[in-house]
User: Fold this.
Amino acid sequence: AITESDVLLAVASDAIIVGFHVTADARAREMANREKVDIRTYAIIYEVKEDITKAVEGMLKPELVEKWVGTAVVRQTFRIPKAGIISGSYVEQGRIRRGDKIRVSRNGVVVHEGTIGSLRRFKDDAREVAAGLECGIGLENFDDVKVEDQIEAYELVKSERKL
Assistant:
């Protein structure tokens, strides 16, 4: 049986009480209501397992997972007053979006990780440029872009962790 001492222990450790094939006596139920302690009782073992698994998974911080968005190759660079270096690029796969997180690779080595600060299609601002199109990409805090650099765009997606 679930007793008052079980409730006191749950209060002290800020926990819930899980019982399997037991009930709480009247004094324990009263104390649990007064102290706002949750008492859960079960008759089927897999229900206990499911509820505890859900409770523990709810305490896990979500995992950040990289999701690939697109790839562009730098064909030419331009120095623009006030804007810095703009890379004239061709979007090879996926799409490139303003604000995306990016990774710049040169000869297979990552030389910069950052964010797309500006994106233009001809002279117009663009939010997104699809595969097969050319665009001008301005990277935040990075002006060492070279012809043939690969710009890989990705986003971070929260993924709930499971046990």
About this structure: The two ends are 30 Å apart (CA to CA). The chain has two domains: 4-59, 64-158.
